[in-house]
Amino acid sequence: MSSIAICQIIFGFSIFGLLFIFSRNLPLIPDYEVKYVPKEKRVSFRLRRNVTEGKIKTSHKAHKFQEKITSRLRVVVLKIDNYLSSRLQKVRERRFHLENIYFKKHKIEKKTKDKKEDKKGV
């Protein structure tokens, strides 16, 4: 026989065994009385309560962690802002300095050209 047929036979016997055990206990099921359990003693209530308490604790920790990370991120952003502001100020100062040098140089050249033309014309 093939291994598939052997597996099918074993599966059939196991299903038959489960049905046999279930059928023997079937008469006991109607005799079972449902007992009232107070809400506070139910497992589902205790689990829900513990989960909500856990959520509160973890949410508190999460908010604390988020606050810490956000404040550190703010400090980093402010440091970057200060650095960029100082670099921008230096670039502006260089630009103004170079413009002043450039204009002074051209003004001086214009004045010298004007003076040379005046001397030639005289």
Q: How would the blueprint of this fold be written?
A:
Blueprint: H1 3-25, H2 43-121
Short précis:
The protein has helices at 3-25, 43-121. With 122 residues, the protein is an all-alpha fold.
Q: What this model shows, in words?
A:
With 122 residues, this protein is mostly helical. It has two helices and no strands. The longest helix has 79 residues. It is elongated.
Q: What fraction, in percent, of the residue positions are helical?
A: over 70%
Query: Biggest sheet, in brief?
Result: none
Number of strands: 0
Distance between the termini: 129 Å
Mean pLDDT: 78
Main structural class: mainly alpha
Features:
122 residues, mainly alpha
